[in-house]
Amino acid sequence: MLKTIKSKWLIGLLPVLILTNASALAEQSTPQSYTLAQAIDYALANNPDLNIAAERIGQAEAQLGVAMSAFYPQVTARVSYDHSDNPAQVFAMMVAQRQFDSSAIQTINNPGGRENFRPEIIGKMSLYRGGQDYQNKLAAELGIESAELEQSALRNALIQAVTASYYGYLAAVEAHKVAQDAISAIDSELSQTRKQYDAGTTLKSDVLSLEVQLAEAQNAEIRAANSIELAQTSMTTLLGLSAVRPFSIASESQLSTPVLKASFNDLLNQALAQRPEIKAAANQIEISLRQLKSEEGAYLPRADAYVSYGQNSQQPGFSASRDNVTVGVAVEMDLFSGFSSQQRIKAAERKAAQARETERKVKLAIEQEVTVAFLKLEEALARLHVTEASVAAADEALRLVNEQRRAQVVTVTRYIESEVARNKAYSSTIAAHYDALSAEADLKKAIGEWK
User: Fold this and answer.
1) Cβ neighbourhood burial of 78 (10 Å; 0-12, 13-18, 19+)
2) Backbone torsions φ then ψ of 116, nearest 5 degrees
3) Which homologous superfamily is 31-79+133-300+338-446 in?
4) Domain boundaries, the chain
5) pLDDT for 51-109, tens place per residue?
């Protein structure tokens, strides 16, 4: 009876399971479509480089915890066992175990073997270490800030890379459409021209010319299709998606036209003021100086306070009648360390000098990046203006050639050339628009707008 009920229950549940699995498979097979804003948000949440940077921040915070531990007491539990027939050690064991009496004097030179068990708790606290603990704490705090600045720089670069890949993909798609339209137009004319050649009403050169143009259009279509694949691959990596996960890129309904809103000097000053790489380089200088001061603290004395509570006994166990407490302060200072302290200071000085040069290098690189991005945007805007003017000229040229063709005063090759030129003008305008948007993204990244 139970088996029958279970079988009926499974049979009734089977359609639900089938529908659930089918829905899951359909969801996996349906490609996710991303606009530019959605692609940026997804990349910021899933890009591995940003996740790695977040882990580095956690590591820096843990390193600060390690540095702060020097300001807290250290407590250790320990159990030791000794066995000796050394008269001095045996005498000390007997006294510590509170078992020394006058009869023990008679056998002081030949006491025989004796055991000593000592369970104890030891507390130790650093009172002063030449300022090393304080400097290490400050360096660790700066390390957290540096890790956060590194994450900010990665965020700035990631948004720019996603934006460039997005517009690169859309430009490749438009170029692919233009190439396909050109192939369709040339192929149609080539078919008609071949028929005319077979009928003896046109020249062989017209056929050959159209075949050459068809090959060029097919070559352009292959390049555009490959550019689409490359842009998709780049976007997959930036978004942190699996290579087998399908996705698509949605074009925006209306594209903005970039403009230069500030002079080069203003943009350069803005970049030098807010780029996280410069702040991180300055932090590294400060960290190296703190580490240098920490190494210089090795020449100063160190003071530690300690306390020990335990007992001495011949058997394992604990008895309050034999417990003892030791409290003290120890001060020490290195008089000669084999030049190790001196060499560590030299290494720290070199590291500080390296950090200064690194900061100068970063500033020079950012100045170059701003200059290149500014010039590229100027060039892209100029190209966009020129290509927009060329579209009107190409449209008019095609209209005139079309009228001449109807009057049979131009060859079909001239008509196809005009149509291809018009398509290229449109393609160049679209490409120039996307190039300008990409150049604008490069300039925003150069000045650290997305930090």
Assistant:
1) exposed
2) -145, 120
3) Outer membrane efflux proteins (OEP) (1.20.1600.10)
4) 31-79+133-300+338-446
5) 999 999 999 999 999 999 999 999 999 999 999 999 889 888 888 888 888 777 878 88
